Amino acid sequence: MTALATTFATGHVGLNVTDLDRSVGFYRRVFGWTERGRGDGYAFLGDDARLIVTLWQQSAGEFSAAAPGLHHLSFQVDSVEDVQAVEARVREAGLHLYHDGIVPHAEGASSGGIFFEDPDGIRLEVFTGAGVHGEAPAGEAPTCGFF
User: Which of 8, 51, 109, 123 suits a disulfide with 46, CB 3.0-4.6 Å?
Assistant: First the structure.
């Protein structure tokens, strides 16, 4: 079987949320994105170059890791300093931060980041490809799979 395209890239990710205004505020504050569009029950967020996340107020309750679907949403940044900047914003927002800070993806890896939740309990990761040191919370297993 041949590939349909030479490269696939994520265009944007759509997330169901319970409170649109709260979620827009969270994603703008933590990630620094701007609102690129808004309608009745939805908002588009992104940076100057692209749409990154769409938020849809179509849910009740909280994200469930026990149901099939999204495990976590991961964003790569350029440096450990960028991860630290996001970590500071997450801590200021008082949200749940797994592993209490920046950790490697696995034992001996130099890539790693932070793992946290948005206001609806959707699990998020911000990571960088190099420069992370310390003990990996899950040993040789991928840290991102165990939060």
Answer: 51
* Count of alpha carbons within 13 angstroms of residue 92, beta-carbon side: 10
Average pLDDT over residues 83-102: 93
Query: Of 72, 80, 70, which Cα lies nearest the Cα of 127?
Result: 80
- The answer on pLDDT for 50 being more than 90 is yes
pTM as predicted: 0.91
Asked whether the beta carbons of 49 and 89 are under 8 A apart, the reply is: no
Number of separate domains in the chain: 2
Q: Tell me the two tokens of residue 8.
A: 């696939």
Contacts of 85 (CB under 8 A, 6+ apart): none
SS3 63: coil
82 shares its domain with 23:
no
Query: Residue 1: inside a domain, yes or no?
Result: no
Backbone angles phi, psi at 112, to 5 degrees: 170, -175
Mean pLDDT value of segment 107-131 = 95
What single letter denotes the amino acid at residue 92? E
Question: Which helix (H) or strand (E) is 31 found in, with range?
Answer: helix 20-31
pLDDT in tens, 12-45: 999 999 999 999 999 999 999 999 999 999 999 9
